[in-house]
């Protein structure tokens, strides 16, 4: 861990320690920036104490970016200004975190580490300010940092010691507005009796190196006032929460009731995990339980980063990846010449440019444009040096890998390459034709190459050879049909292929290429809140309604996106259009209202029915839709569902257990389960990530098993 000083926007100083590993090619796509906030009488070294208990070293081993700050007034961090009338110390600390500290930490360490979001890790008195900051972030229309989660320990709702002891400390232990706890008084409540051996000996030996004074304001507010107003902040927090209390915490009453009482206040959070860490003292992180607790915390942070990365920031959501626009392009767009009217861009394009140039992030288009325009006018728009350095390293890695790949391809027997020669049949061609081809696959480290011998030979042949190859492919089509028709399965049947028209000779060439997944996909197929539209009557298999226009966004790797926005696809009204919609497979659900939230669908092409399996919160079950032979994009398909609660075994099916699904024809889906969770509707939206479906026969058996199991029938 390295120490750092940072200058905040208000002129104050912030100190702390950090560990930001170099981002490698094998690093996860979504990575948290863990920001650790210590409690009273400790400082940032609390998270880097000891050899076996250091949270920072564990994070470094796992490759997780980690920053531990010194709260205002601790070590070299500037103290607070006087608390204004009508406010409290901990409320002001939360505002300070949100307005000054977290934005600066993100700007300094978040962008350079490639992190997706900040996840706060707070201990004891670091928790109140973190709760306030998280609530303020949720209600900030233009947050300057992404927040993905909040982890807390050593803070509760019911004090473990009488208030009289706190008053005694205030009356007798305050010097210059601060309170200092001698180790002989402090270690007992923090670690427990030494004979119990709850912390390693080296931690007790480090006592004086970890100890410092605390502010009277935070002690007084946390003891006497926080309980009166904290619930109003807790309910505003919108990020996932993980909370733990040591079983032998001496500062708070630790029981199932008190832990549940604390957790229940976070009604706005989509996920709240809470529990007692059996055997642990107040300072869980410094105890023998610290390593296990921190492993859980870092795993939770990784999940939060992945969830946040699925719909916001760094990549700005699935298929919202924008390359950096040049300053010339930005000038043409934001400072156009007289008479020119460049086409405006979408809001998340401007947001991406802010990130590319290291400017404070904003989801608001106008705010983003103003910041970019100001930087252009002031001639301060430049790529941060850490991003330039990172890009240079990535280019070197790519060039090196490319050289190794070319050398291995040229060598007859590459030293570290796996060479396999096999004949494959392109069985998933759009026009139903298939032919045998020979490929060579090379795997060197993380670089994979597929060399098609037929393609290489065809490139060397004349036009006459190409025609011969085309005729050969056409002659192989009947045999391909025969082999395809010989394989049948009730679990994953495929729709019949359309016959190739003889009047279109170009179809032969296209049929010889295997089906590949589209690389350009709509990033926002369904506008926000459309799932909340009222559906007054029960579903009748298919709903017909006004088509929804889809906002397109194309992934681009080497150039800024074009300023002309794409249109939307018109619905296909042909009677067999359902055959062209990819439905079967597993979907990645965005902005999950419950965890877990998994949906896999499978079309039974033989009977033109839809089956699905889902796990939503504590509910797991099966869904079934009737005739879907005429489904088209933008039209809702109704389904029924049957579920069982994993916690209490409660089964639900029959009247009122229905919903609808809607597909856009480009592997996106949205829908609604009516009355699934506590009688409330559950809306969702996601895109296809895996085309492997389900066993239809198994889904039918599970569907039929529900009434038999519920009524005890054989």
TrEMBL record:
Region ranges (Disordered): 408-436, 458-579
InterPro entries assigned to the protein according to its UniProt record, in alphabetical order: AB_hydrolase_fold
Protein origin, superkingdom: Eukaryota
Comp. bias (Low complexity): 468-525
Stated name of the protein: AB hydrolase-1 domain-containing protein
């Amino acid at each position: 861990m390295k120490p750092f000083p940072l200058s905040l926007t208000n002129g104050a100083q912030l100190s702390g320690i950090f560990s930001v590993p170099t981002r490698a090619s094998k690093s996860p796509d979504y990575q948290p920036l863990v920001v650790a906030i210590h409690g009273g009488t400790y400082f940032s070294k609390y998270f880097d104490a000891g050899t076996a208990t250091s949270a920072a070293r564990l994070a470094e081993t796992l490759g997780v970016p980690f920053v531990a700050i010194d709260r205002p007034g601790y070590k070299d961090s500037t103290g607070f200004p006087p608390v204004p009338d009508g406010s409290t110390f901990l409320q002001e600390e939360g505002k300070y975190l949100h307005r000054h500290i977290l934005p600066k930490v993100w700007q300094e360490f978040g962008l350079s580490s490639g992190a997706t979001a900040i996840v706060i890790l707070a201990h004891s008195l670091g928790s109140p300010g973190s709760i306030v900051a998280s609530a303020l972030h949720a209600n900030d229309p233009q947050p300057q940092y992404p927040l993905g989660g909040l982890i807390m320990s050593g803070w509760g709702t019911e004090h473990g010691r009488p208030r009289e002891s706190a008053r005694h400390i205030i009356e007798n232990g305050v010097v210059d507005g601060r309170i200092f706890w001698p180790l002989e008084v402090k270690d007992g409540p923090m670690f427990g009796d030494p004979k119990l051996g709850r912390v390693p000996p080296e931690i007790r030996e480090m006592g004086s190196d970890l100890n410092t004074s605390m502010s009277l304001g935070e002690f007084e507010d946390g003891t006497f006032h926080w309980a009166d107003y904290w619930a109003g902040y807790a309910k505003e927090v919108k990020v996932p929460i993980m909370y733990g209390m040591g079983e032998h915490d001496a500062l708070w009453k630790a029981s199932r009731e008190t832990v549940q009482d604390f957790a229940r206040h976070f009604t706005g959070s989509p996920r709240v995990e809470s529990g007692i860490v059996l055997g642990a003292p107040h300072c869980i992180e410094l105890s023998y339980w610290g390593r296990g607790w921190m492993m859980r915390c870092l795993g939770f942070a990784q999940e939060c980063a992945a969830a946040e990365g699925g719909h916001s920031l760094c990549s700005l959501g699935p298929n919202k990846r924008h390359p950096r626009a040049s300053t010339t392009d930005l000038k043409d767009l934001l400072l156009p010449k007289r008479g020119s009217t460049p086409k405006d861009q979408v809001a998340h394009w401007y947001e991406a440019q802010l990130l590319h140039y290291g400017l404070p992030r904003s989801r608001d288009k106008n705010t983003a444009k103003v910041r970019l325009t100001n930087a252009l006018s002031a001639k301060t728009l430049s790529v941060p040096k850490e991003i330039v350095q990172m890009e240079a390293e990535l280019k070197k890695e790519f060039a090196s890998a490319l050289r190794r790949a070319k050398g291995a391809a040229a060598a007859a027997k590459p030293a570290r390459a796996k060479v396999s020669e096999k004949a494959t049949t392109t069985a998933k061609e759009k026009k139903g034709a298939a032919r045998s081809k020979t490929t060579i696959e090379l795997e060197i480290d993380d670089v994979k190459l597929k060399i098609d011998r037929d393609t290489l030979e065809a490139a060397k042949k004349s036009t006459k050879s190409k025609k011969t190859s085309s005729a050969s492919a056409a002659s192989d089509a009947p045999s391909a049909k025969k082999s395809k028709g010989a394989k049948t399965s009730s679990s994953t049947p495929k729709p019949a292929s359309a016959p190739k028209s003889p009047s279109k000779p170009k179809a032969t060439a296209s049929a010889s290429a295997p089906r590949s997944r589209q690389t350009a996909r709509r990033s926002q197929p369904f506008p926000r809140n459309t799932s909340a539209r009222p559906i007054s009557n029960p579903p009748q298999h298919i709903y017909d309604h006004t088509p929804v226009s889809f906002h397109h966004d194309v992934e681009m790797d080497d150039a800024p996106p074009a300023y002309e926005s794409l249109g939307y696809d018109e619905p296909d009204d042909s009677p067999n259009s359902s055959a062209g919609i990819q439905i079967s497979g597993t979907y990645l659900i965005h902005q999950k209202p419950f965890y877990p939230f998994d949906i896999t669908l499978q079309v039974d092409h033989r009977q033109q029915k839809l089956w699905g399996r889902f796990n939503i919160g504590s509910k797991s079950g099966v869904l079934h839709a009737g005739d879907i032979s005429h489904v088209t994009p933008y039209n809702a398909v109704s389904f029924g569902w049957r579920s069982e609660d994993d916690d209490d075994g409660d089964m639900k099916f029959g009247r009122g257990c229905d919903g609808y699904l809607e597909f856009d024809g480009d592997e996106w889906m949205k829908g609604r389960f009516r009355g699934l969770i506590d009688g409330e509707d559950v809306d969702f939206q996601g895109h296809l990530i895996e085309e492997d479906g389900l066993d239809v026969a198994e889904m039918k058996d599970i569907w039929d098993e529900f009434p038999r199991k519920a009524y005890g029938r054989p």
